[in-house]
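Collaboration report, partner site 2.

Our partner group contributed sequences for two proteins of shared interest, and the home lab folded both. The records are reproduced in the order in which they were received, starting with the first partner submission.
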Amino acid sequence: MAAHHHRRRRTAALAVTAALTVLPAVIGCDAVNKALDCVQTADSIADSVTDLQQAVENAADDPSRTDASLDSIETDLDQLAATTDDADVDQAVDHLDKAVANIRTAIQNGDNTPDLSPATDAAGELTKVCTP
């Protein structure tokens, strides 16, 4: 009977050890998935900033395209802000969000050629902090 009890305790100890061994791998995968999501979203935002540059250049032909580009960037930023807990990413999102808001305000105030460099710089910053 003592051998049976000892075997059960050893089996339980092995199960706990196995669970603790798997736990960091699961946490690691979660971190990798978050990093991939960040990179993919940063890439999408970079594409949207490129679209924004083209939209501003062609604003006379299609002014709604500029709004659509700004909306796309803001949607991606909201999504990224909701899924990250990284301070550097949060700061980069905040910088880009402010740059987009300033561009939107400039356009609403009649500026047909707003300065896009803060948005471009912030998108680059975001890509940098999202890249592992």
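Second partner submission, folded after the first:
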Amino acid sequence: MKKLLIFLMWVPCFYLSQKIETGTFSELEYRQKQDRRPVIIHFYTDWCTVCKVETFRQNQDKELVNRINDSFHMINFEAEKTKENIFFQGKEFTYVSNGSSGIHEIVLALSRNKQQPVYPLWIILDAHLNLIYYHEGLWEPEEMKKKLNELFVH
């Protein structure tokens, strides 16, 4: 009885801990060779409150979490703090410092707003890494599910 009680106490922790699985740009080439999938890129900053709220809401939507984890490679990328060089689509992208802050070139390359990208920024690529959708600003889970279903039939 005691073991059952302990087990039942832990079940909610496992259920609530499920979240969108993410990788990095450096892992993407290998992951695509192993399992070619469409790619979702999420650019955010740690000062962006909307980014934090959005991530929390999306991770609470189990249908969305499962859809992304089962069908996509996902990259979360901190646009203003990530300093490593990124190799993507045959090009090298670096961090551009601007005094005490800066921005990564890959954000500028993929953003439509080259002077000041809008966060959060979502880029969806097909399985061959071609741009198929672009979204700036808050993306609610229901809207995201709807768009993913429009772009990619289950």
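Feedback sent to the partner group on the second submission included the following. Strands lie at 39-44, 73-78, 86-88, 91-93, 95-98, 101-104, 121-125, 131-136. Helices lie at 2-16, 25-34, 49-60, 62-71, 105-110, 141-151.
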